[in-house]
Amino acid sequence: MSEPLIVLMVEDSKDDALLVLRALRQDGFNVVWERVQTADQFRAALASRTWDVVISDYRLPGFDAPAALSILQQSGVDLPFIVVSGTIGEIAAVAMMKAGAHDYLMKENLTRLPEAVRREVREAQVRAERRQAEIQLRQTAEREQLMRTVTERIRRSLDLDEILSATVTEVRQLLQADRVILFQVSLQSHGYVVQESVGDGWQPLLGQNIYDPCFQENYIEQYFHGHTWAIADIDDGSIQPCHAEFLRQFQVRASLIVPIIQPNYLWGLLIAHHCSQTRQWHSEEIQLLKHLADQVAIALQQADLYRQTQLELSERQRAEAALQQLNQELEQRVQERTLALQQQAEQERLLRLIVQNIHRSLDLDEILATVLDETRQTLQVDRVTIYQFAPDWSGRFVAESVGEEWSPLVAEGVQTVWEDTHLQETKGGRYRNGETFAVSDIYQAGHTDCHVEILAQFQVRAYAIAPIFLDEQLWGLLAIYQNTGPRDWRAWELRLLQQISLQTAIALRQSNLYQTAQAQVAELEKLHQIKDDFLSTVSHELRSPMTNIKMAIQMVEVLLEQHQIQDERLTRYMQILEDECSQELNLINDLLDLQRLEAGVQSIELENVDLNYWLPSIIEPFEARIQEQHQRLKVNLPQNLPSITTDLNGFKRILMELLHNACKYTPPHELITLTAHVADGMLNVQVSNSGIDLPAEELPRLFEKFYRVVSVDRWNRGGTGLGLALVKRLVEYLHGSIEVESANALTSFTIRLPIQPQSASANSTSANPANA
């Protein structure tokens, strides 16, 4: 798709101009252009339209590029200026760049011109956007400053005329309008211009009574409901013809009108007139006028209040008494509100502390101690307790926070049981329904004598209780006690008690879950240990008989060969026995190796391993197998790989298991690849095979013991499921890591081993061709 480009060309040669155009068009520009040759033509062209770029020859008859650049700069238009000349020298080119030219090129080599034009046009656009943003920021700041000025003037002054006069003057200056008026509405479509700011040469309207026949019929109801009218052109049909005629007599071409609304009536209008020409009003200007209209409304209300206050001053004594009463009421409300806010803040602080303790700690005793202490301090009570129900609905106090002067109900060697017959008979009574119960004075609450006697023994005079539910069952009660005397419990205190009881239930539930989880973890660890012990024992017990069986099979084969007995079925049966016996021995050995690795008792013998010898040696036994299975092998080993200090047997076992795995699962004609390289002190070896994808959800489980991805074993090769688990343990034992990736029919295992482990001895043995 071609790029539009508008070019003003200063060039006396038409042929040269066409060469420039061809270079631009060949690079994808759709060029609109004009060629000028004199200073007057250049000025006229700059004023005639908007250009994207100026391309100028350096020297023309009677005109040149420096003069053109000077004219462009004097015009104030920010356009890219590029010099294209066949005669400019380096000194002149540098002078042009210093003077403000953006680039210069030689006519005989225009290959760089399209990119230079693109760059400079793009940078000019960025500069224009930046200037526009700066203008908008400045206008926004001016509007905000005007709002602050008007607001401060309203706050500082009670002189309404001064406020309104300054407002219309500053609005006109900011909006660059020809006239701004405040029009006060009266009855029967009449109004009065109470304030005005008007530019020179335009008709003043201040003090005039104005009648608009269309106003009552078409507009007053809409203005009363806050409608704002932005008229860009009175003749564009957006307003009634009668209203357009009405505005024309005041020289108005465009108008912006916002209502000034007082409670229950339309006071008037704040109006900006543009008389010299039509004008599109921007949303920011509309919003500014609306905000100022609101401020004018506030000033009017303030003036009305001031006038009313002046009238009230005539009745000084009553006014002073009323004012004093009002101040007292306000002070009382402020105190009440302040107290309420303080109480709310304390509630929120306490609840945050409780929630933080629940999230931070799993120690239930610690959590409950903090909850009860903070609750007692916040509510300023003498005692806070948690009471737990027993299965028969009797119960005991299990946690407490109490002042030093009162006898504890819960302490070391002290555990208070309270058998409330009513709660036992009703199985929790009202608390089963989630009710919170509060008593201001036990002697005025209508309790039975025995109940009052028990409460008195506990030194209680007033109390409030909230239920604690655990898994939708009533678990116990959270109680606060006032011992020093009666107390009227406030609503916010009871709400807070309910919220604390809910948080306490969460803490109890969290503790129960934690204890359950710990028990499950202990049980799982126990089962895991039993399993490992069993596998170890079974492996040891099976290894000897399986070894004997394998030796017996080998002896039978020797005897058959000595007696020259050749029976195809017998040979096949013997091969089956030998294969199965080998597989069982491999499984037993793998289990024993895994057991030693997981127990941390596997011996490790560090030695210097010559990778240039051992990597090909490890791969060699697999080449024949790969060829038999019609697979392909690719080995990418750089020359002069460094030696690595590691356990050679473990290293060989890792690579052989990965290569065995690749051979087993790679389809015929697919590729097995082994690569190795060294980076950041680590040996990176990758074994990959193509033709098969492993499901993403299976990858994290590949290294689990006995786990096999059956869905990709299309050849039913089977296996113990221990190979990759053993590889992972060996890699980790050698202080390395292993990763697996599978995508786009390619599966790769990458191992990373340190070239020189931290624990490596300086006197390691050497594994190389000389002593292998």
Automatic annotation (TrEMBL):
The record's InterPro entries line, in alphabetical order, gives: CheY-like_superfamily, GAF, GAF-like_dom_sf, HATPase_C_sf, HATPase_dom, His_kinase_dom, HisK_dim/P_dom, HisK_dim/P_sf
Question: SMART domains in the record, alphabetically?
Answer: GAF, HATPase_c, HisKA, REC
Write out the entry's keywords from A to Z: Coiled coil, Kinase, Phosphoprotein, Transferase, Two-component regulatory system
- 4-aspartylphosphate is found on D57
Could you tell me which PROSITE patterns the record lists for this protein? HIS_KIN, PHYTOCHROME_2, RESPONSE_REGULATORY
Q: Name one GO molecular function term.
A: phosphorelay sensor kinase activity
Keyword Kinase: yes or no? Answer: yes
Q: Residues in domain Response regulatory?
A: 6-122
Name the Enzyme Commission number(s) assigned to this protein. Answer: 2.7.13.3
- Give me the reactions it catalyses: ATP + protein L-histidine = ADP + protein N-phospho-L-histidine
Gene3D superfamilies noted in UniProt = 1.10.287.130, 3.30.450.40, 3.40.50.2300, Histidine kinase-like ATPase, C-terminal domain (3.30.565.10)
Every copy of the Phytochrome chromophore attachment site domain together lies at 159-295, 363-503
Q: Which residues form a coiled coil?
A: 309-347
Q: Where is the Histidine kinase domain?
A: 537-757
In which family does this protein belong, per the annotation? In the N-terminal section; belongs to the phytochrome family.
| Full protein name | histidine kinase
